[in-house]
Amino acid sequence: MPSTKEIKKRIKSVEDTHKITNAMYLIASTKLRKAKSDFDHTKPYFTALREEIKRIFRISDDLSSPYFYPIDNISKEKITHIALVITADKGLAGAYNQNVIKAALNMLKEHPDTKFYIVGEYGRHYFTEHHIKFEQSFLYTAQSPTMYRARNITDLLLEDYNSHPFTKLFVIYTDLKSGLIGEANNYRILPFHRAQFQDLKDETHALHNVEFYPSLESILDNIVKSYATGYIYSALIDSFCCEQEARMMAMSNANDNAKGILSELSTEFNRVRQAQITQEITEIAAGAKAKKRKDEAR
């Protein structure tokens, strides 16, 4: 049975850990509120770009662009897969990182020649430790997702994308579902299916008499680049929100466990202390009785 000193030391250790996990919970909740606000602000930009692409397809639905599947949608050439994997810079967030890594490994299993780009120190460390080749990792982006960083990442990905004649570009991240429930998602950014933008129900914004300079194709390509940047930025914010939510849940569980351990340790401390008091009383009573018998013997 441990002594009261050992139990008190254990209680102090658990209390210190509880203070840390509680502080991490509060920090994560603050970051989540800010990130959720940034996430909501990305939606109008994302929607506006999508509508502009729809307008262009209302004018000409047979445009040729490297960012769209060919009209016949048939290609017998070897497809190059490029994937941006978004993880966190640290752990203590439940299964958040493991789910993203699992999705990346599933893609690697299906397409062994996939070219990976990594966001987050956790992902970089995992790929390095398991000797999985990746093209580049982006430092500090997971903890500070900005449009500037998203634009830099997009430029690099599109440079690689455009260097191969048949390429698919994916982003593997944690998608923010309703109720702030995160789910690892493997989403194809490029090329687009034309059906995604060929919504011809609304003809009120048809621009048949508008002249586009330098060309409709170049304008479409420029908008698609911005669209891809917007999606990657949205994915970074999305992942950051899910990371903070996962960390809040993990820290909340840790707090509950700490409270349970403290309750058990307090009960054990009281039991041990009571046993010590009982033992002391017994020893005192036995000593007094022995002294009394000694005195009577005289």
> Strand-and-helix sequence, N→C?
HEHEHEHEEH
Radius of gyration: 31 Å
How many domains? The number is 2
Weakly predicted, low-confidence segments: none
CATH topology of the largest domain: Pyruvate Kinase, Chain: A, domain 1
Helix content: 55-70%
**Estimated structural class:** alpha/beta
CATH superfamily of the largest domain: ATP synthase, F1 complex, gamma subunit
Described by the principal axes of the CA atoms, the overall outline is: elongated
> Strand order within the widest sheet?
3-2-1-4-5
**Topology, number of strands:** 5
Approximate strand percentage: 5-15%
Task: Specify the CATH class of the largest domain.
Answer: Alpha Beta
CATH architecture of the largest domain: 3-Layer(aba) Sandwich
Average pLDDT value? 78
Taking the alpha carbons of the first and last residues, their distance comes to 41 Å
SS field, number of helical segments:
5
Largest sheet: 5 strands, mixed
